[in-house]
Write a structure and sequence with these properties.
The complex is a heterodimer of chains A (about 300) and B (about 240).
Chain A lengths: L3 H11 L8 E6 L2 E6 L4 E5 L6 E5 L4 E6 L2 E3 L5 E10 L4 E5 L2 E4 L6 E11 L4 E11 L6 E3 L2 E6 L4 E10 L3 E10 L4 E10 L4 E10 L4 E11 L4 E10 L3 E11 L4 E10 L4 E10 L3 H9 L4 H12 L2
Parallel strand pairs in A: 1-5, 1-6, 4-7, 5-8, 6-9, 7-10, 8-11, 9-11, 10-12, 10-13, 11-14, 12-15, 13-15, 14-16, 15-17, 16-18, 17-19, 18-20, 19-21, 20-22
Antiparallel strand pairs in A: 1-2, 3-4
Helix pairs in contact in A: 2-3
Chain B lengths: L1 E10 L2 E11 L4 E5 L6 H9 L6 E6 L2 E2 L5 H7 L1 E4 L11 H9 L4 H11 L17 H14 L4 E5 L7 H18 L2 E5 L3 H6 L2 E6 L2 E6 L1 H11 L18
Parallel strand pairs in B: 3-8, 3-9, 6-7, 7-8
Antiparallel strand pairs in B: 1-2, 1-4, 4-5, 9-10
Classes of the chains: A mainly beta (about 300), B alpha/beta (about 240).
């Protein structure tokens, strides 16, 4: 059922060796490949068949669900709408990710639109990796969208990673935070060659006592280009922070625009942004420990994107 | 074991290191001191290859190293502890220590922690980032230098950011490394504790080596350098000539 290419892609995007344990839904070339549900986690196709609805029962603790997507069909642009309903008091991990294997001159692409509704006091960790490979020169596109709604006391930790090979990515992250909720987004994107990636983020701190931290780490190699936009809007007494760092190598280009909007007098919003080459003191330190220049660069990038 | 011969480092026509020659002996403890801006750190960086030599030679264990890279000098056995250590994003103390020691073996890393006197195991997984205090990052810097098992260890102002109570243990640590591992130790410092620990005190002023010997004879010069004195120097033996 899983060929060698499928297995390689699943390993890269979801750290899976074969089929996962527990609930999962594997989508291949726009169609369901395999699905399993568990006692607490239900997965069903939505009404028009354009995606899935994952429902996690209230109080479900320490369970995970894998929903990887793999593409290896020339010319396919797969769009999927997935909904996640996380019940009150649950504490779960969702592992998504999309791997593209391109073997021809024809383009391949995927757009995953993921909407999360996290119930009162629930916690979710969402891990999403994007990766493309293959000998074909067809354009590989990945356009993920995440929309997060956090109810009172809910928490979401989102790890969004693009680890290489993707020619074009338009990422959009939106979140609305209820009272005393917590959101942590860490986005790591590596581009090289002539690749282009845009990340647009809008976080609305609507509830009193809500907290959000958005961290973006970009590495821009070759002639590639990355743009990062983040807006944090506070409607209540809350705390928000944006930290965006970009390392430029070769002829990479970057535009970073953090934006803070306080609509409440007790809002505390901060940001720090940096764009630049690898700091020479970091390189010298690692070289003084015996690494070559290239080894030091790789180690710094590896840590930066870890 | 380290020989500097007619060493110059010039920037925009100004000699920051001005024709320095000196031979460091194996296994000795040297403290380099002198006024701010006299060229102490520049000299240390020339030895490590961080600054390029303008002219002259540096020979380490009989091998000319002035054209070698930082990496090549590190692999020859020279280690360097930076005055302002680099901070990273996503790299932990464990990562740096493993690179320095050439192993990520847990038992060996723990042995290194014991060797440098760091008692907290949780410290190992601290990110080496901007959140660390000045004292914490200096301990990491020292530990990664010692983890190289260097033949020649250069410490540039190791006491910067360190609290008073930590300086003596730090001096004892460097002396222990000198005695137990035969490490030739060069400490750039203004701190009397390091000057007292040295077998030989070297004093630099305006890029020249103006004194080499024990601390007792160096003290009049150091005291004179610490006060304002605008009178003209008179003769070679006038300490005012060396400010």
């Amino acid at each position: 059922m899983l060929d060698a290419i499928d297995k390689d892609l699943l390993k890269k995007v979801a750290d899976l060796e074969g089929l996962p344990k527990g609930a999962f839904n594997i989508r291949k070339n726009g169609k369901l490949l395999k699905r399993e549900v568990s006692a607490n986690i239900n997965i069903e196709s939505n009404a028009d068949g354009s995606g899935i609805i994952v429902t996690i029962k209230p109080g479900t603790i320490n369970e995970s669900v894998h929903i990887p997507v793999i593409l290896s069909l020339a010319g396919l642009y797969d769009v999927v709408y997935n909904n996640f309903i996380i019940g009150e008091g649950a504490d779960v991990t969702i592992i998504a990710g999309c791997g593209i294997h391109c073997g021809s001159l024809e383009p391949e692409g995927h757009a995953g639109i993921h909407e999360f509704r996290v119930g009162k006091g629930a916690k979710v960790k969402y891990v999403e990796k994007h990766y493309a490979t293959g000998p074909g020169r067809g354009r590989r596109t990945l356009n993920p969208t995440t929309k997060v709604f956090l109810e009172a006391g809910a928490a979401a930790e989102m790890e969004l990673t693009q680890i290489g090979g993707v020619d074009e990515a338009n990422r959009a992250n939106e979140a609305t935070l209820g009272p005393d909720s917590l959101l942590l987004i860490t986005e790591r994107v590596l581009t090289e060659g002539n690749q282009k990636a845009v990340s647009a983020n809008t976080i609305i701190l609507a509830g009193a006592g809500s907290r959000a931290n958005m961290i973006s780490r970009s590495v821009i190699k070759g002639d590639s280009e990355q743009d990062f936009y983040a807006t944090m809007e506070a409607l209540a007494p809350c705390f928000g922070h944006i930290e965006c760092d970009a390392i430029i190598m070769d002829n990479g280009r970057n535009e970073t625009v953090p934006s803070l909007k306080a609509r409440h007098p007790d809002a505390a919003l901060t940001h720090e942004a940096s764009i630049g080459k690898i700091a020479s003191d970091q390189l010298m330190k690692l070289m003084s420990l015996g690494l070559t220049y290239d080894e030091a660069v790789n180690r710094i990038i590896q840590g930066f994107l870890k | 074991m380290l020989e500097l011969k007619d060493l110059y480092f010039s920037v925009s026509g100004r000699d920051i290191i001005d024709g320095m020659s000196y031979t460091f002996e194996k296994g000795k403890f040297y403290s380099i001191t002198g006024p701010n801006g006299s060229g102490k750190t520049t000299l240390a960086k020339l030895i490590m290859g961080i600054n390029p030599v303008s002219s002259g030679s540096i020979s380490f264990q009989g091998k000319e190293i002035s054209s070698l890279s930082i990496t090549e000098r590190a692999r020859e056995g020279i280690a360097y502890s930076f005055q302002q250590p680099a901070r990273f994003k996503g790299i932990t103390f464990r990562d740096l220590l493993a690179i320095a020691a050439g192993t990520d073996d847990e038992a060996m890393l723990l042995a290194l922690l014991r060797r440098v006197g760091i008692c907290s195991l949780s410290f190992l997984d601290n990110p080496v980032d901007a959140k660390l205090s000045g004292g914490e990052i200096k301990k990491i810097e020292l530990a990664t230098t010692i983890a190289r098992n260097p033949k020649l260890a250069i410490y540039d102002e190791p006491d910067t950011g360190i609290d008073l109570w930590t300086i003596q243990p730090m001096v004892r640590l460097l002396k222990r490394e000198q005695h137990e591992h035969g490490t030739t130790t060069v400490v750039v410092s203004h701190n009397r504790a390091f000057l007292e620990a040295a077998d030989i005190v070297l004093m630099i002023s305006e890029g020249k080596l103006v004194y080499k010997g024990d601390l007792t004879d160096a003290l009049p010069m150091l005291n004179d350098l610490s006060v304002c004195n605008y009178r003209k120097c008179v003769g070679d033996k006038d300490v005012g000539c060396y400010r």
